[in-house]
Amino acid sequence: MSVSPARRAAFDTVLRVFEDDAYADRAFPSAARGLDERDRALAQRLAYGTIQRARTLDHGIEALGRRPVAKLDAPVRAALRLGAYQLGFSEVAVHAAVNESVELVRASGLERAVSFANAVLRRLALGLRELLDSLPEATPREAALRHSYPDWVAELWWRGLGAEEALALMRAQNEPLETVVRRNERKAGEVAGEPDHEIPGAFHVERVDEQALREGLIWPQSRASQLAGLCVGAREGELTLDLCAAPGGKATQIAGEVTAVEKHPGRARELEETCHRLGAGNVYVLNADALELPADLRGFDRALVDAPCSGLGVLASRPDLRWHAKPLPDLQRALLAVAAERVRPGGTILYSVCTISAAENEDVVDASGLEIEQLGEEWPQFAHPRRPEFLLTLPHRDRTSGFFISRLRRS
Question: Which residues are catalytic?
Fold first, then answer.
């Protein structure tokens, strides 16, 4: 029996993510090269779902297969995880999930492991769903196993949101959220999709129109990310400093003159290409370390600090991130301090991070000593549940990525 191209691409992606520490969004495109639209969609669903659910899948494999996952050959581990995901969380035919997963082991040159993989997968086919349904979720650690998160993430949300909200958030970030694009007002042309009723310029689409993307009519960007760009509030004639600009979604939203800083040369080149494609001639890209800017780069009316973070608000679209995410409050505080130095007195700083963690969100802002503007009054539907002066989008409530957004003023 041969392996379908979609399952081969999913297998290759899973293998690279867990064995080579590759990022899923970089490993998948090369693995799926040449697939038609239908196969590509299936491959991504299988790959991303397997990566997301890896902890739960490993528990099922070990409980029913009676062999520690860590001791398996890497291709066997990847094939069993992929097969287990299909058997436990998808509606694909059982025989296809079992047989093609076995063939992936055989195709990897591990003939000696074929009978073992076949036996484990058949046990999974008979008992995995029942095992998964029986997993408890009454404590953070139980919920982390059932919903496939590191313990520390479950404990963090349990403390910050309470058990009910934490569970809803964990469930939501294991499911696809919205597919949304931003309409690029700099270019004329028809754009398909349903306009969002809250975020101007946001369009809900079934899939990203690749032709419209190439022509610069749209940019894939969640509603929460677009909200952060809108909250910068820059106007024509003003100067804005974007300290962490790549890939460019927010930088190309901003009116006036924008200096977009990007540390990594390759990402800076991609940012320049994005600005050119979208017709954002008002954006000047500076390849530099935001913590070591030229001394004369100051006097800005506004700054945007869309800081690197643990990314706990975008786990639905970044399936591998939960396994290597880490909070970065020291870097965030340093970047916010740079922004405060570079804006003029009375200027504003938009601080945003795509995470749901007080240590990277409100604690960073509180430590800055900057004056806090009341964003919750402008966007009450997205107000932070405990600190309404801030915004906090929540995937389970707002069906978009999780973003913390605050606007600060230098006195």
Answer: 354
CATH class entry, domain 5-135: mainly alpha
Tell me the per-residue pLDDT of 181-192, one tens digit each, with 9 for 90 and over: 999 999 999 999
| DSSP class of 113 | G
Q: Supply the pLDDT for residue 177.
A: 86
Nearest partner of 49 among 84, 5, 97, 76, judged by Cα: 84
- pLDDT tens digits, one per residue of 275-323: 999 999 999 999 999 999 999 999 999 999 999 999 999 999 999 999 9
Domain map (residue ranges) of the chain: 5-135, 224-409
Q: Which helix (H) or strand (E) holds 218?
A: strand 218-220
Identify residue 130 by its one-letter amino acid code.
E
How many helices and strands (H and E) does the chain possess? 17, 12
pLDDT per residue over 153-209, tens digit each? 999 999 999 999 999 999 999 998 899 999 999 999 999 999 999 999 999 999 999
Phi, psi of 214, rounded to the nearest 5 degrees: -60, -35
The 10s digit of each residue's pLDDT in 206-237 is: 999 999 999 999 999 999 999 999 999 999 99
Report pTM. Answer: 0.94
Contact 107, 79 (CB under 8 A): no
Burial class (CB in 10 A: 0-12, 13-18, 19+), 122: middle
Half-sphere exposure of 12 (CA within 13 A, CB side): 18
Q: What does the alpha-carbon distance between residue 321 and residue 24 come to, in Å, rounded to a whole number?
A: 9
Contact 14, 78 (CB under 8 A): yes
CATH superfamily of 224-409: Vaccinia Virus protein VP39 (3.40.50.150)
Burial state string for 329-342 with b = 16 or more CB within 10 A and e = fewer than 16: bebbbebbbbbbeb
